[in-house]
Structure formats: structure tokens, C-alpha cells
Specification:
- The chain is mainly beta and 248 residues long.
- It has a domain at 116-236: Immunoglobulin-like, CATH 2.60.40.740.
- The chain contains one helix and eleven strands, in the order αβββββββββββ.
- A five-stranded antiparallel β-sheet has the order 7-8-5-10-11, with no helix packed on it.
Length: 248
Amino acid sequence: MKISARMGASIAFLLMMAMVAWLGVGERAWARPGQPAQTVPTPTPSRTPAPPPTATDTPQPLPPTNTPQPPAPTHTRTRGSDNGDTPAPAATETPAPPTATPLPEPPTPSPAAPTSAVANFVAEVIADPPWAIPGRPVILTLTLRNVSDRDLADLKARADLPSAIRIQEATSQSGVVTAQGQVISVNFPALAVGASASVTVKGTIAPDAPAGRVLDVIWAIVDDQGATQSVGIVLPLPPAELPPTGQR
């Protein structure tokens, strides 16, 4: 009868287990014959050194900064009515306000001369017709009216007419008229409150008056207190003819 190698190994393992069961398991199993029981040696675990700590990027706390602290208040002790010490606040000095630099005084304006806005009269000029036609007549009339609360005296009016107006006559029912060339002067001796006075100038527009121009008629009036006023009118001449621009 042949026994295979695997079967032989199994028989040997069974015999070994039977021997262990016969001899016993425990401290006696390790004792030699004639010696007391021995303690089963227990393997001592070896100490494995711990790995060194690994440096991590842990932010370290910042050192405290030296923040200046406000000074402690100083208490002045005063004696009160109850014989107790009452702390009084320390006196503080209030800075004086800056001294303002005085500004230079503005110059005092000199009194202005009277203007037409404060005149004691109103003036008006009209033309008939209100334009200038070469070779045609024109009539110019100046009218003054007293708007003050008193009678006016010695009113004077003066006009320097354009040379294109050929003066024929200048008349007034309440004043004295003087004509010298193109200058007309009128003196009104008196003008009662609310009354009016006028002067009329008749003339003819010169036949050769340049077309496309205007004629300015301006009167200047002064009252007995020096108040002045100017009034005028513009007489347009016919438009000028444009030169031919060519033929087609």
C-alpha cells in the first residue's frame, strides 16, 4: 500500500496534535523533565520611536504692540459740605480763537452825475414820415413834458442834424429857437407841472442821399438842476441796388 506525500503530512500533523493533547498545554508543556514549570515566554513589544513632529504652517500669534495709553486723569480733591473728598475735574485750557484780519474798506464811490432816470421830464421825438426818401419833405417834432411836482425853468434842447436833412425852418410856440447850420438849439423859459412844450423842424431829404444808409436824429435836453436826457430817432433810406452779377 503506497502513501502519498500529502497524506503523510496530514498523518504527521495529527500525531503531533495527539502528542500535544497527551502532554498538556500550559506552563508544564515548556518544562524540561525534572524541572519545575516554566513560564511561557511572552514576546516583549519593541518600542518604535515616534516620528519627529512635522513643522506646519501654523500662524504664530503676533507679539503685542505697544499702544500708547491715554494718561490717567488727575483728580483734585476738594472739601465738600459733607466733609467728603469730591474729585474735581482737572482744568483744561481753551485755545483762544484766531484773530481775524480786518479786510480793507472798499473805496467810497464818488457821487454820480444825474442821469435821465432822475430827470424831471420826459422827451419824445417823432418823424413824419418815419423814413427818409431822397427829394421828399420830412417833419421832426420834439416834445417835452414836466412829470415832476414843481415848475421847471430854463430847459435847453439841442440837436445836430445829419447833412442829408436840408433844414427849411424850426419853430416853437413855447420856446426860443436858434438855427446855426445843422445845429438846432431851443430854450424853454418855463414849464409848469404836467405841461408840455415842443419844437418842430421842417426839412427835405437831399436828392443825393446815399441809398442803404440811415439818418440819426438825436436831441439832448438839460433842466435847471442839471439833469440830462437824450432821445432820438432813426430814419432809414431806401435800400441800395445790387450790381449785376453776370448774364446767363
